[in-house]
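Example with several molecule types.
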Amino acid sequence: DIVMTQSPDSLAVSLGERATINCKSSQNVLSSSNNKNYLVWYQHKPGQPPKVLIYWASTRESGVPDRFSGSGSGTDFTLTISSLQAEDVAVYYCQQHYSTPRTFGQGTKVEIK
Amino acid sequence: QVQLVQSGAEVREPGASVKVSCKTSGYTFISYYINWVRQAPGQGLEWMGIINPSGGSTNYARKFQGRVTMTRDTSTRTVYMELSSLRSEDTAVYYCARDTNMGLGWFDPWGQGTLVTVFS
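Resulting structure tokens for the full complex:
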């Protein structure tokens, strides 16, 4: 199974400041057949289902604010919130869909400092 | 628009079974696989398995094999997840989520979640 490890487990950032979340997979999730990273980022708020923010590691979902960006390839990935807003308080998860079982990182809780 | 609407909260005693439904609308039912994911209190997201609504084939996470059964009813566009031999550790919110690419994609959209509580 591919193990997904996020860091940090939580972080507190001032409004308007940058938040950076890292995700490391135990195996490569870059497909050689289509050169795509099978890595997605979700935002999860209490009482709501998770919401897709970024897919293929760096493609922003339609309607997602451009302060959210994803980067990385192979085994190391990053989600960046360039200017944290109050509505961004949530838990963020990375997930690989390169192989079964699908696996998630343990989540990173983002709060306002 | 695409919607997945799940059944309501359930309470069960240890050893019992629970069956959660996920009714879909807004797209061709047999064209998209459905995943099940759960989140225990204070824990992260855990993938349980996937079903192909077209033929009914399934693939379960090793942890749940022998205890979980995923089925579908094409006439009502509904997918079901049944978990048996419940224990307190199965207390969680259970989500269904559509797979974006024939079992190779990410999950979007998700159902609203169903809280299953197991206690004696």
